[in-house]
Amino acid sequence: MHYEFKAPEASTAHVPFNNINGLHDWLDNLTTLDSIYYYQEILCVLQALKTFKLSSKEHINALKKINMHLTNSVKHFDNNYWDTKFPLAYEQFSKVEIITWAYAELANNYYQLAIYTSKQKSFFSSKKNTAFLLYQALQATSQVYLKISSCYALPYSGFWTSLYQLYFFAEQQSLLTTPISINKHEKKTTEQAFINILLLSLCDMHQFRPRDMQQIYDFLSYFSSYSHIHTTLSSTDLNRVRSFHQHQDAPLLPETSTTKRGFVDYRYLMFTESLNEIFGELSFSKPTSSTLNKFNQAIFLRAYKSLTSIQKRQHTRISNRCVGNGVIGLEDIIKFHKKNTQLTEGIADTFLETRTITNKPANEPLPLSLVDEDHYIDIAIKEKSNITSHNNIFNESNSLPEAQNGSMRIEEFEIINSTFKGHQILWNNSSEKLQIGNVFGMVSAPSHSIEIGLVRRMSTTESSLIIGIELLSIESLVICISSPSTPEQKISCILLNQDSLLFSANHFQSGEEIYLFINHNKILCHLGQSLHSTTSVNHFELLFPHEQRLGIT
C-alpha cells in the first residue's frame, strides 16, 4: 500500500520516427494500445528524445505534439481516476506512476532544450522561446506534483531540486518575467508558473480529493502574480514567508528569524498579497445557487486556511492504541441505526428532552481540528502484531449486534491516537475503500451508539492508509425530513447534536424550509449554512425559532 514513485530504468528504445509526419503516424498507432502500454511507450520515447539528434525546431515540434497527445489521454484517465477510492489497486497506481514519470521526462526534455537554445543564436533560441520552454517544463512539473499528491504520497527523491533548478536557470538567464502568450487574451511568466506550484505545495494536499487538487491548482493560478520571490528576507510577517535553497531537496521551509542568511542560494517566497487577494475573492464573490460552485468555494476556503496556517490542532492528542470498529458511508450508518432501534428504544425521547436549540450566526466558521502524522504512527506500525483481542473494545463480552449480516458492513481498524475532536487510525482493509469527505461512524459496543465523523486526511505508510477522522457528533439520531410542499416524500437523514443534519446530496439547499419528523412530531425549521458538502452528502446547520425545543411543535 506504500505508493513509492521509483525512477524507471533508462530506456534503450530508439525514437520510432524520423520526421514530424512519422511522429503523427506513431501517435495515431499508439491510440490502439491499452492505456498502461500507451504511457510506457510515451515514457520510453521521451527518454530517448533527450539523446536523439534533432534540430531545435524539430525537437520543439515533437515535444508539442507528444505533450498535446499525452495531456488529452491523461484527461480521459483523470475523469475516472479523480473519483477513485483508496487504497488504490496495484493496476491503478501503476498507471499513475507511469504518467508521473512521463511528465517528469517531458519536463526534462523541455529543460535540456532550454539550456541548448540559450547557447545558440537563431530564431528558435531567442529569449522568448527559451522562456517558453522553461514555462512548459514547469507546467509538466506541476502535473508531476499533482499526480504524486493524488496518491497521498511524498515527492520522490530529487523532485524539489529539479524544480528549483528550473527557477534558478530562468533567473540566471533573466527570463523570470518574460511574458509568454498562453492564448489570445492571457499571458503568463515563468516566475508565475513556479510560484503556482509553490503555493499549491503549501495547501496540504492530504486533505483533498484528487479532483479537488487540480481545481485548487487552477484557482491559485489567478493569484500567483501577487506573490514575489526575493533574494533577501525583508518582511517582518514571517507567517507569510517561506524559503528554499537551490541545492536542498526539500519543500518550502518556514522562516523563524528575520536575520539575513549568509548564503546566496536562498530565495524567499513572500505571498501576503496573494493571500489578501484570495481572501477578497472568497469573501466578496457574489453568492450563487450552484451546488458545484458552493462546493468549490468550500474547498478553496480550506486551502486558504492551510496557506495562512489557520488550521491547527486545537486539542491535545492522546495515544490510545486499540482496535476499533466502524461503518462507512451515510447509507450504511442509517442502516446501522435502524437495525439497532430495538437496542436503543427511548433514546429519541431522551435525546430531545435534554437539549434546547441555540441559534448560531450564519457566518460562524466550522472549527477544524485535524489529526496529523507523527511518531505514534511508526510506533503503531512496528507494534501492530502486539494488538490482540485484549485490546479490542469489541471482544466477546461486548459483541456487536447482528448488523454484519445484511449489505451493511462493520469494518475493523486500528486507532493510533485521539483528540477531543477526532481520531487517527490505520486502515488495512483493501476491500473497503475510502475517500476524503466520507461519513465515518465509530461504533461503541457497550451502548451500541455511534460517533459520527468525516474522513478529513489521508496519507500512506508501507502497509496502511493513515486516516484522519474529524468528529462531528457523539450523539446522532436517524429521522426523516421532507419539503413542506411535499410532506409525504420523506428521506432518511441523521440528526447531529440537535443543531445540524447529514443527508444525501442534491435534496435541499441552504435557506430552505424543511419538516423534521421525530417520533410523532413534525417540526418546521430552516437549513442554515452548509458545513460540509461533497457529491454524495451534505451537512447543514439547523435554524429554529429561539423559543422552540425539538419534539415540541
Q: Which terms would index this structure?
A:
18 strands; six-stranded antiparallel beta barrel; alpha+beta; 553 residues
Indicate the percent of residues in helices: 25-40%
User: Biggest sheet: strands side by side, in what order?
Assistant: 7-8-9-12-11-10
Rg, Å, rounded: 27 Å
* Biggest sheet character: 6 strands, antiparallel, barrel
Structure classification: alpha+beta
The overall average pLDDT, rounded, is: 82
What count of structural domains? 2
Portion in beta strands:
15-25%
Low-confidence stretches: 342-377, 383-405
Secondary structure: number of strands: 18
Net shape: globular
**N-to-C span:** 53 Å
Number of helices: 13
Summarize the structure.
By secondary structure, the chain is of the alpha+beta class.
Molecular structure report:
This protein is α+β, with helices and mostly antiparallel strands and 553 residues long. It folds into 2 domains: 20-307, no CATH class; 312-553, no CATH class. It contains 13 helices and 18 strands. The strands form 4 sheets. A 6-stranded antiparallel barrel has the order 7-8-9-12-11-10. Strands 13-14-15-18-17-16 form a 6-stranded antiparallel beta barrel. The longest helix has 29 residues, at 90-118. The chain is globular, with a radius of gyration of 27 Å.
Outline the fold blueprint.
Elements: H1 20-30, H2 35-49, H3 56-81, H4 90-118, H5 127-149, H6 159-172, E1 180-183, E2 186-188, H7 190-201, H8 210-220, E3 228-230, E4 241-245, E5 253-254, E6 266-270, H9 272-284, H10 291-307, E7 318-328, H11 330-339, H12 347-353, H13 375-382, E8 411-419, E9 422-427, E10 439-444, E11 449-460, E12 465-473, E13 476-483, E14 486-496, E15 500-504, E16 513-518, E17 521-533, E18 537-543
Antiparallel strand pairs: 1-2, 3-6, 4-5, 4-6, 7-8, 7-10, 8-9, 9-12, 10-11, 11-12, 13-14, 13-16, 14-15, 15-18, 16-17, 17-18
Helix pairs in contact: 1-3, 2-3, 2-4, 3-4, 4-5, 5-7, 7-8, 8-10, 9-10
